[in-house]
Each structure stands twice: as structure tokens, then as C-alpha cells.
Amino acid sequence: MADGGGSFRALLRAANALLQQRRYHAALAVIKGFRNGAVYGAKIRAPHALVMTFLFKSGSFREKLKSIAQAMYAHSRNLAYFVFTYKGLLAAQSRLQGKRIPFHSFLAAFIGGWLVFGDNNPINSQIIMYLLSRILFGLARLAVEKGYIPQPRQDPFPLLAALVWGTVLWLFEYHRHTLQPSLQSSMTYLYEDSEVWHDVSDFLIYNKRTDSK
Fold first, then answer.
1. Contacting residues for 174 by C-beta, under 8 A, at least 6 apart
2. Which Gene Ontology terms of cellular component type are present (predicted)?
3. pLDDT tens sequence for the chain (213 residues)
């Protein structure tokens, strides 16, 4: 037992010594990026999948748990693969050219996005839409910083909020099929289910009656 403990400590010291080697930093960063992508993907998907599944999906408790687990796995796997691919390609380009330039980041992420997130499925679609909204904000701020567009005299956020809500409700009411399914479900719950009730039970307590009355 003591020999086993000593062997483990020796192995741990060797692993820690390896992690301190600067020559392996790029390769180790790729591996840790894979780890962080997997963990973050599971953490970020878990609460969303939990809420959306139990609010809007039908089926048994076991089926709902399976659906949540599948969504967590898909998000975790894809993010882990993407970080691994991105950091690996970034390190390869830097090594080939002897330095890192801004285009390396775009190219590595472009290839990773194509390979990992190119499949048009609900998980990837949600991730891309999330990123797209952040990109638009970021590009707008960058354009102001670089002087490509003038600094607004007033905060443009109220107008943006009005345009976003006006557009999304117009699409929901008249072109619903263009919206992502989970958004359709959320809006149906908020704006259509609130139009229907039979008594106090499905007016205040439940969204819909489950009996046959």
C-alpha cells in the first residue's frame, strides 16, 4: 500500500514537472482548452436544457432527463472539439510563421466553425445565434472606436430595443416559421396561451388544463 502511494506521488511530481515545461506549453494549452470547452459546455447547457425541457416538452420524466443529458453532451462535445481545433490551428500557424498575427485567429476559428458547428441542428443554431448578437454589438462598438461611424449623441439602446422587439413580434405573428423553435415555444407560452382559460385553475395556477372538462 505504501509503495502504491509512493508511486502515485512520484507520478504526480513527474506530471507537475512536465506541466512546467515551456516547450510543451502550446500542446498542453490545446489539451486544457479541450477540457475547459467540455466543462463550460455542460455548465452553460444544463440550466437552459432543464428549464426548456420541463416547461415546453412533453413525455415521461425519464424521457425529459434523457433529452437534457443529450443536449448537455452535444453542447459540451462541440465546444470541446472547437476549442481543441482552434487552439491547435492557432499554435500550428504561429509555429509555421514564427509569430502570431490577427488573421491566424480568424482562420483557425473559421475552420473550426466549419468543421464543428457546420451541422444545422438546434444546439448549433442556438450557439450561432447567441454569438451573432454579440458580434453585431462588438462590431458596432469597434466601428465607433475606429472612427468609422460617429459617436452617437444619445444612447442608441432604447431605439435598438424597440426595433428588436417590434421585429420579433411581427415575425412571430405573421411569419412564425422563420423563428427558431425554442423562441416560438417561449412566445406561444407568453402571447398565445395567455389568451385561453376556462376557470381560475388555468387562469392563475396552471397554463393549461390537463383534465377533459
1. none
2. peroxisomal membrane
3. 556 677 888 888 888 887 888 887 888 889 888 999 899 888 888 888 888 788 777 788 888 888 889 889 999 999 999 999 999 999 999 989 988 899 999 999 999 999 999 999 988 998 999 999 999 999 999 999 999 999 989 999 999 999 999 999 999 999 999 998 888 988 998 898 888 888 887 787 778 776 554
Nearest-angstrom CA–CA distance, 178 and 189: 18
16 phi and psi angles, rounded to 5 deg: -65, -35
Instruction: Give the domain extent around 185.
Output: 155-202
Neighbours of 202 (CB within 10 A): 16
The answer to whether residue 27 is domain-embedded is yes
Please, what's the b/e burial string for 89-100 (b: 16 or more CB within 10 A of its CB; e: otherwise)?
A: bbbebeeeeeee
**165, containing H or E segment:** helix 157-174
In angstroms, rounded to a whole number, what is the distance separating the alpha carbons of residues 186 and 176?
Answer: 12
Cell 451541422, located at residue = 119
Same domain, yes or no: 20 and 94: yes
16 and 114 inside one domain: yes
> Can you tell me which residue has the cell 468543421?
115
Distance CA(69)–CA(50), nearest Å, equals 9
Q: Are 111 and 37 members of one domain? A: yes
* Residue 211 belongs to a domain: no
